[in-house]
Amino acid sequence: MEEIPFDELARTFREQRCEGTGACTVAEVLERKFVKVQLGAFEVFYPTEFLAQREAPEDLVDVAVGLLDFQRVWIEWLMAGAETATPVLADLAALRAWVDAWPGRKLAKLGKEGGHRDLADFCEASAELRAADARLLAYLRSEASGLPFPADRRVPLILSPTRLDFMQWVAFAGQLLDDKRRELYSYGVDQWTQFWTDWTLVAAMEYASWDGFDPKFLGGKSMKSIQPTGIVEQVTLQAGMAFLKHCVTRDLDHHDNALVMNIILEFVGTINTIDGEGQLKDSGAQTQPYSRFVPGGNPNGGTLPPRSAQGQNVVVSSGYRKGNGKDHFYGALHKGQREGAKDAIKEKVARYKDSLAHFLLKAEAGKCVVTAPFFGAAAALQQYPAQEYLTEYGELFRAYKSAFHHWLRTAGDPSSPEASAAKFRQLMQQLDDLSDGRNFEQLAQEVYGVPLSAANGETDSLEWRFLAFIEQVK
Q: Rounded to an integer, what distance in angstroms lies between the CA atom of residue 245 and that of residue 251?
């Protein structure tokens, strides 16, 4: 196992950010050498010195705009047509125009000067813009918003531009927080894209190196090299999950993740994030992502292995990412379902005559078929495919859950798109009601009047209606 030099990383962090090697808190670090800006539900922090680097001002603007776009779509989906939402959406548009006009050269100059600055002051936000931000936050905290945001805080979001900076944050937080040290100082942390310190989220803006373990953390993979909008997609996914975690009093699951993915698809048009997809509790541990994101059980017990950096090329080339979500993954799923049906007959897998239920997984080792259901209690009884297919299995499920939630919102009620959108709003507004053993499966049945899923297509369910829809995709 590779050794991560946590003590050295933490010492360097303190020398650079704490003005010496002595103790300092996260709040003290942020008050010294970071720019900050409040944007509705989010309070964003970015290390000032990095603004002097090429493209850094543009990246900061893009992320800030993305956070405002996320809140816009959230409000539109949650409160479509509500009169109370109209003035708030106008406030959002004004804030977005202001952020989009931030002067890049002036921000780059600020990076050379260093120190701490409030961007509302530095970028000369008018009194009306400050009032617009206050009204937006007040609306999100009100019952009128449909799913109120907590009144005692925004989402503190620390942006970390490089892998070295991110790993220094990990090391510093591990020394600062005794109860988190074991979790942060763990195998696989060098692959994370986010973690928590209390309610503050630290989000990476680079992926880990794809050339094996990088002991100096200088070979980070640019998110924009994978997708021009990669930073916006990845950071907004993490921030959106953090936003949702603030709105509900339970652990998040893959249905929450699908919702946030689809909000990003709505305003970016693609979603090509790779890892750290946002299963957020009180920290960002992601060392067993498949145990959280992929349905099915392991008959031998234990958890699935973490996704390695070396395998990321396989991830981005997966057939289940074709189009990066531009068609909400319907085309990729249709192809996988068609191929799965053929191989199911050839291999005589269980229920091979059910043409809707099977999907084909491809890996260097060959091919295998996996079979629905992928949601609900029946999915928990499924066995994982062989380990060499787990990465592709995760890619199938990522596309599947996103497409399913888009289908729910646009066609989940067969009577009309408007009725579908209304029921999906109802679903969103009750996301904080899942407690005392009540789960998404029960909520879906209450809203839609049929089970979320079933063991097979003999019982009417939302999942089998979705599978029938996928079969008809052109």
A: 8
| CB < 8 Å & 24+ apart, contacts of 251-258 | 251/281, 252/278, 252/279, 252/280, 252/281, 253/279, 253/440, 254/279, 254/292, 254/293, 254/397, 254/401, 255/401, 255/405, 255/440, 256/431, 257/293, 257/401, 258/401, 258/402, 258/404, 258/405
Answer whether 424's CB lies under 8 Å from 77's CB. yes
What digits encode the pLDDT tens for the residues 118-129?
999 999 999 999
Q: CA–CA separation, 133 vs 7, rounded Å?
A: 40
Q: Determine the residue type at 365.
A: A
AA letter at 244: L
Tokens of 128: 């009306």
Question: What's the pLDDT at 247?
Answer: 92
Contact 38, 224 (CB under 8 A): no
| Contacting residues for 33 by C-beta, under 8 A, at least 6 apart | 16, 17, 47, 48, 49, 114, 115, 116
Burial label for 403, CB within 10 Å (0-12, 13-18, 19+), is: buried
Would you give the DSSP letter of residue 214?
-
Question: 354 to each of 6, 357, 393, 462, how far by Cα in Å?
Answer: 52, 6, 20, 16
Residue-wise pLDDT tens digits, 79-107: 988 898 999 999 999 999 999 999 999 99
For the chain, the structural domain boundaries read 6-268, 311-472
Structural contact between residues 146 and 246, judged by C-beta atoms closer than 8 angstroms: no
Residue for token pair 């936003």:
243
> How far apart (Å, rounded) are the C-alpha atoms in residues 462 and 200?
37
Residue with tokens 């996996």: 370
Q: What is the pTM of this model?
A: 0.93
Could you tell me which of 214, 192, 212, 205 has the C-alpha nearest to residue 311? 212
Mean pLDDT score of the chain: 89
| β-strands 117-118, 34-39 pairing | parallel
**Sequence-separated (6 or more) residues with CB below 8 Å from residue 240:** 70, 260, 263, 264, 278
Instruction: Report which residue type is found at 410.
Output: T
Q: Which residues contact 134 (CB under 8 A, 6 or more apart)?
A: none
